[in-house]
Amino acid sequence: MKTCEYAGNDTSAPRSHPWVDAVGDSSCRYYDFTKSPELIRTALEDFIPYAHHDAVEEFYSLLTDLNQPSSGLESNDCAFSGPHKNSNTSISMSVQSWGRIMILFRHLPHNQSRGNIEWLAGELHQHLAVHDAQFKLGMIGTTIVPVNYLALGKHERQQSGYQLMISFWAWGNSDKESMKNTTRVVRNLSSAIKHISTLAAQG
């Protein structure tokens, strides 16, 4: 499957973990799915309008696996924008869907090493490079973003660390085709995340 290193939007200002609410939308908030996995199917406001699609159920399963007790990783944030006009001129399809998930090591001090996050990204790219290689209507991108881990100290220098932002896109010439390809993208991403989560749990 196609992957890339993605510049993203402005990722220079550190996020926080846990975060309180989203900029511009106080209704969005952080949920710890390692402690409350039952909220996965009810708390993600971006995904609820598309819950009847297989792609969203696949994403819920991804989150469940990622945040289970035996996982070495967990999620911090995710987002989804359903089918809309394709803005990528290099893809000759009229519709695209887009999503995002932020992942981090369950053992918070591991996230203070940029090298550890680079390792996560590298393993994900390597896994996907040989996984579903014929699929051309989806893309997964990685971005390393700065994060302040509030539980690691009172001062910013003690909190400073990183997370891996994973963005994904799927294209088609109709809403239905775009969401069908989103299902395939999420399945591929789920396979990669299971791979790196197992490695992370092993230490």
Pick out its properties.
single chain, 203 residues, alpha/beta, globular
Please, could you describe this protein's structure?
The protein is of the alpha/beta class and 203 residues long. It has one domain. It has 4 helices and 8 strands; from the N terminus they run ββββαββαβαβα. The strands form 2 sheets. Strands 1, 2, 5, 6, 7 and 8 form a 6-stranded mixed sheet that branches. The chain has a two-stranded antiparallel sheet with strand order 3-4. A hairpin with a 2-residue loop joins strand 3 and strand 4. Helix 2 packs across helix 4. The radius of gyration is 16 Å and the shape is globular.
> Roughly what fraction of the amino acids lie in strands?
25-35%
The number of domains = 1
Structural class: alpha/beta
How many strands?
8
State the distance separating the first and last CA atoms.
27 Å
Summed over residues and divided by their number, the pLDDT gives a mean of: 91
Low-pLDDT residue spans:
21-26
The description of the largest β-sheet is: 6 strands, mixed
The percent of residues in helical segments reads: 25-40%
Question: What sort of overall outline do the alpha carbons produce when their principal axes are compared?
Answer: globular
Total helical elements: 4
Radius of gyration: 16 Å
Written as H for each helix and E for each strand, in order along the chain, the element string is EEEEHEEHEHEH
